[in-house]
Amino acid sequence: MKLDINGVHYHVEMTNRDMQEAVVFLHGFTGSTKSWQPITKSWNEFKVVLIDLIGHGETDCPEMIDSYSMERQLEDLDALFSQLNLACLTLVGYSMGGRTALAYACRFPERIKRLVLESASPGLRSDAERQERRMRDERLAERIIAGGIVNFVDRWENISLFDSQKSLPYAVKRSIREERLSQNPTGLANSLRGMGTGAQISYWNKLAKLEIPVLLVTGQLDLKFESIAEEMAGLMPNAIHKTIDAGHAIHVEKPAEFATIVREYLSLTY
Hints:
- This protein is α/β, with parallel strands linked by helices.
- It has one domain (2-268): Rossmann fold.
- The protein has ten helices and eight strands.
- Helix 2 (70-83) packs across helix 3, helix 4 (127-147) crosses helix 5 and helix 4 runs antiparallel to helix 7.
- It is globular and about 50 Å long.
- The relative contact order is 0.15.
């Protein structure tokens, strides 16, 4: 379905509408609701909500970069949850979607019952780090627009972050590539400029005050995000860190294990 939120049409998929408890999933950069469908197809005990974030999937890709700021995305999500009558929900986010989920929980903690953050970060701590990352994100955004989506995906799927995906079955790799190729270049470029890691404020100083239950999931081959999650778990008052034998995109590389860990956690914190 499509929901008009602050002038942007968001693509939303919902199953098990009659269930009381809702679990909302937010994809990563170049992802969409399709990222989560293999994970959630048998989740009958929850109302499952999949959302295409701005600039991705079937959600609008506005030309105005202001529409893509993290603050605007948080406000859009809050309005979207209100339209769907989701008063208290579990928010699951991967990578960019994990940063967004954490930012939302810090901004609207009364809405969130639990957080599940897969390969996620609270952002970069210093202004210098964010400035350097903004410059890199801007260069990548310019390449996406100038070179087109095929050229970008050819490069993107070969960055070191996704090395562990090269051993996946052909059908899985083809599905990932098709999802990436289906994206709108303007949407991806503006997403980087508006809510990329360089554009986002740091949430490190807010972690100690976030009292809701949090599950951090990382892949042991993803050393950078393993280290980030360990530090996050040490700062959060109610966090658990789980590691799976995978790389960055755990739900893609080990979908059954990821789903089992998340569902067990939700049952324990019901």
